[in-house]
Amino acid sequence: MTRWCSGWPAPAKINRFLRVLGRRSDGYHQLQTLFQFIEPTDQLDFAVTADPMVTREGGLPGLDPEADLAVRAARSLQRFAGVEQGVCIRLTKRIPAGGGLGGGSSDAATTLVALNRLWECRLPRSSLMKLALELGADVPVFVAGEAAWAEGVGEELRPVTVDEPWLLVADPGVAVDTGAVFRAMKLTRPGAQLTIRDFEAGAVGNDCESVVRQLHPAVGEALDVLGEQGPVALSGTGGCCFCRFDSRQAASEAAERVGNRVVTWLCRASNRSPLLDRLSVVPS
């Protein structure tokens, strides 16, 4: 009988702002952003096996398990820690793919954190963060589980405590290729570097927005629709975008005005990942 350890959350994220400061010598872009966690949340369940196979159930339709970041994360931890056991990963997807909400990265981070416990690897967080960075620049912030001011390619993290507004998030149903966005950007003039004080004073924005609008008109339409309700921001390279509100009621009223012109949902930005709460519970 398969014994599952269930209910490991993998939250989505938003970028409260995104600055592109220039292109590095290795071809990657120097970024500056602030990460917070939001709903929806993917769910991962794990069944540890005696044999060393890593398999996956569920996940994104059509995605080869070999390309799944959760599977890659499990194998990376397995190699690094010399684990002889395997695992079956059951993945329930709720985060839109290619929406700039970090779903794949979050799944990978939850896999690292959960299996570090379930395989009894007992690796320190610093080791998990190193493995996370090898999987993708967004993965470490999900492992850390705290809102963070990020620089570098997004991996230089400084925990922050900022406001946690209510959000109206819009999903135009477009899967944006992040690599294509950055390849299309012409950085003739690098974006201005911000401080936390600048952010708190209202200096936000997303340097990728103009390029994403050109590449994906549907994202531009969603930005315009949501922009009727207040200042709107693209998360990451999109396609999801969001408006901030001081109360749930204000966000709900904005959703009613938007109607069915674009798919939306209400949630609240959080400085703490639900993964940290699950980690404090004895696995079951």
Furnish the topology, listing elements before pairings.
Blueprint: E1 5-23, E2 29-49, E3 54-58, H1 69-81, E4 86-92, H2 103-118, H3 125-135, H4 139-144, E5 148-152, E6 156-159, E7 166-171, H5 178-184, H6 196-200, H7 209-215, H8 217-227, E8 232-234, E9 241-245, H9 248-258, E10 263-268, H10 274-279
Helix pairs in contact: 1-2, 1-3, 2-3, 7-8
What does this structure look like?
- Strands 1, 2, 3, 4, 5 and 6 form a six-stranded mixed sheet that branches. Strands 8-9-7-10 form a four-stranded antiparallel sheet, covered by helices on one side.
- Helix 1 runs parallel beside helix 2 (103-118), helix 2 (103-118) packs antiparallel against helix 3 and helix 7 (209-215) packs across helix 8.
- 33% of the residues lie in helices and 29% in strands.
- By secondary structure, the protein is α+β, with helices and mostly antiparallel strands.
- It folds into two domains: 5-160 and 273-279, 2-Layer Sandwich (Ribosomal Protein S5, domain 2), CATH 3.30.230; 166-268, GHMP kinase, C-terminal domain (Alpha-Beta Plaits, 2-Layer Sandwich).
- The protein has helices at residues 69-81, 103-118, 125-135, 139-144, 178-184, 196-200, 209-215, 217-227, 248-258, 274-279; strands at 5-23, 29-49, 54-58, 86-92, 148-152, 156-159, 166-171, 232-234, 241-245, 263-268.
- The two termini are 15 Å apart.
- Strand 8 and strand 9 form a beta hairpin.
